[in-house]
């Protein structure tokens, strides 16, 4: 049977830099996607990868500085006259500089994006194969990271769409619909949270609640799935996710990107992917197409 590898790139705003390192490690093992399911920041990463691989992802993320570029209201996009708090223009500028929409639209990789159809009140998954033109695909991409209320919704084929990550961040079941024979979930929000015995203030309690909320929303697609011995419904599943050292998910931490943080997340993604494969190798749970021993190359250092 022909191998079909599906990568699921979960959302998590500025934490998405983690996926660069994880994808680089997978690439070094000869593991490349036949299809990518992207949510929120995973949509952008999928488009960057389809445009120019890992190198394009790293170049774009080197320019990412989230908060300073996001808080720019305009005469059109504001809470009084518009449908959002801020203008999406500054954020789009970085994306448009590095994503080749015609190339991504016609890519041999299936690119499926999770969006929330506000007009019909439901989550949907639309792909480059569903779009009739590169221009339609561009609109779909913009909708994929249009955070509701923060950025304006995107009109596509008469309906209004926004980022679907809040309702469907890691849709494991859709990978099966794509005919996956191997699934790689690249989550950016930790599944395990450190134990916290005491809460000294209401702010302390509130931040802990946010951590639990993000952990649940971010990982629900696979969090409650019955994955036994690395398989679900007979399909091998590899989950690469941060450890407890990246468990703090305050709004400021989620939406603020800068070069030093990007490098730290990228290196953590590579490290965690390497550790995951070493553990699965010892347990005999690597996908059949992945032949041990795993090449354990050192992470590349970038400026």
3D structure, described in words:
With 303 residues, the protein is an alpha/beta fold. It is 40% helix and 15% strand. Strand 3 and strand 4 form a beta hairpin.
In short:
The chain is an alpha/beta fold. Helices cover 40% and strands 15% of the residues.
Key terms:
40% helix; 303 residues; 10 helices; alpha/beta; globular
Largest sheet: 9 strands, mixed
Low-confidence stretches: none
Mean pLDDT: 87
Question: What overall form do the CA principal axes indicate?
Answer: globular
Number of helices: 10
Structural class by secondary-structure content: alpha/beta
If you compute it from the alpha carbons, what radius of gyration comes out, rounded to the nearest whole angstrom?
A: 19 Å
Strand fraction = 5-15%
Distance between the termini: 42 Å
Order of helices and strands: EHEHHHHEEHEEHEHEEHH
The total of beta strands comes to: 9
The percent range for helix content is: 25-40%
């Amino acid at each position: 049977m022909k191998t079909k590898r599906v990568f699921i790139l979960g959302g998590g705003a500025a934490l998405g830099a983690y996926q660069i390192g994880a994808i680089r490690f997978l690439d070094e093992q000869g593991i490349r996607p036949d299809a990518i399911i992207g949510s929120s920041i995973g949509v952008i990463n999928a488009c960057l990868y389809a445009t120019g691989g890992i190198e394009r992802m790293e170049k774009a993320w080197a320019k990412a500085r989230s908060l300073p570029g996001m808080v720019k209201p305009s005469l059109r996009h504001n809470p009084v006259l518009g449908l959002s708090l801020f203008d999406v223009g500054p954020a789009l500028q970085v994306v448009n500089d590095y994503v080749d929409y015609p190339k991504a639209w016609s890519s041999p990789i299936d690119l499926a994006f999770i969006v929330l159809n506000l007009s019909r009140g439901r989550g949907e998954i639309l792909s480059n194969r569903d779009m009739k033109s590169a221009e339609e695909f561009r609109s779909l991409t913009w909708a994929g990271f249009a955070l509701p209320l923060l950025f304006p919704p995107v009109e596509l084929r008469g309906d209004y769409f926004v980022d679907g990550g809040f309702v469907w961040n890691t849709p494991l079941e859709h990978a099966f619909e794509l005919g996956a024979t191997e699934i790689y979930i690249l989550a950016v929000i930790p599944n395990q949270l450190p134990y916290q015995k005491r809460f000294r203030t209401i702010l302390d309690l509130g931040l802990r609640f946010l951590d639990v909320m993000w952990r649940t929303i971010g990982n629900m697609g696979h969090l409650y799935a019955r994955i036994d011995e690395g398989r679900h419904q007979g399909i091998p599943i590899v989950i690469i996710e941060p450890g407890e050292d990246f468990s703090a998910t305050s709004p400021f931490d989620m939406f603020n990107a800068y070069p030093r943080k990007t490098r730290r997340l990228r290196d953590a993604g590579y490290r965690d992917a390497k550790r995951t494969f070493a553990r699965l190798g010892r347990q005999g749970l690597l996908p059949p197409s992945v032949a041990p021993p795993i090449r354990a190359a050192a992470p590349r250092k970038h400026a």
